[in-house]
Every structure is written in structure tokens, then in C-alpha cells.
Amino acid sequence: MIFLPKIIALSFGEDILLKTEPVDPRDVFRGDYVNLNYEISTIDLDNIPYDREFLYGESVYATLSEKEEYWTIDSISHTKPGVSDKWVCMKGVVTGNYEDTLYVRWGIESYFVPEGEGIPIQMQMENISVIVSIGPGCSPVIKQLLIDDEPVIFDRSI
């Protein structure tokens, strides 16, 4: 039943748009998936309120709200925040904490694509954004990959 939370998130979750950041092209395409990095994966603790210090491997809950086109982090904590109609909660894992910068893995860093489709995506990494659906428990699931704000659609007839 590992897929049930993802199905629930995709069916009933809140959709948000996240901005990606380019990843070193040598690491972008491995096999049949693309590695994605997000602006929200690097958190400047001097500019984002938080409850206390974070350690490697700890869970982190971020509250995000929509600012212009993309959703960005308003605050982070060790505990799941309450519900609001103006923001969403996203759960991740701390992968590093160095000089007031927190690094977080959200579990949406890989996007699987049909064989051979990764190269065109790799060439446009600076223009990619992702629609993410947030389910119960603040769990994110990739819903749609966008290049230049247009959905990426793969020809499944091949």
C-alpha cells in the first residue's frame, strides 16, 4: 500500500507550482529519469523563521504560500503545522546544515520519463517548473513537469 498516499495526494491534494534550479548537466539525466532541484531545497535560515536548530536526517515541515507565480517557504519547523486555506505544508528531510543554510530533500527530486526523452529535458533545465500535489501528512507528489510554462507531454504510442 505504498502507493495509496500518492494516489490520495494526486486525487485530493492541493496543487502548487515550484521553481526548479539547474543541476550540473553531467548528473541531470541518468537512465530514464531526470534529477530535479528546487529553489526551496536550499533554505536561508537568516531569512526564514524556524523553531530550533535542525540536524542531518531530521524531518522538516515547511509552510509555503503563493508569491506571484511560484510557491515559496514562509517558515519551517520540526512539527506539522495546522491547516490554512492560504498556505500548504510540505514535509522533507534535512540533508545538510551549514553556515545558516539548511539543505532539504522533499522526495520529489526524480521525475521518470520514457526512454530517450531525458536529453530534450536536460537541454532546457533552466526553464523547468513543476506542479506538485500536496497530500495528507504534507507529502508532495509530482503531478506535472512544465517547460516554459507548458506541460511536458510524451508520445506514448512509440
Model description:
This protein has 158 residues and is mainly β. A five-stranded antiparallel sheet has the order 4-1-11-12-13. Strands 5-9-8-6-7 form a five-stranded antiparallel sheet, with no helix packed on it. The protein has a three-stranded antiparallel sheet with strand order 2-3-10. The chain is globular, with a radius of gyration of 16 Å. It is 11% helix and 46% strand.
What's the end-to-end separation, in Å? 31 Å
Taking all Cα atoms into account, the compactness measure Rg is 16 Å
Q: Number of helix segments?
A: 3
Mean pLDDT, as a whole number?
A: 84
The secondary-structure element order is HEHEEEEEEEEEHEEE
Query: Roughly how much helix do the residues carry, as a percent range?
Result: 10-25%
| Global morphology | globular
Strand order of the biggest β-sheet: 4-1-11-12-13
Largest beta-sheet characterization: 5 strands, antiparallel
| Stretches with pLDDT under 50, minimum 5 residues | 24-29
**What is the structural class?**
mainly beta
- Assess the beta-strand content as a share of residues: over 45%
- Total number of beta strands: 13
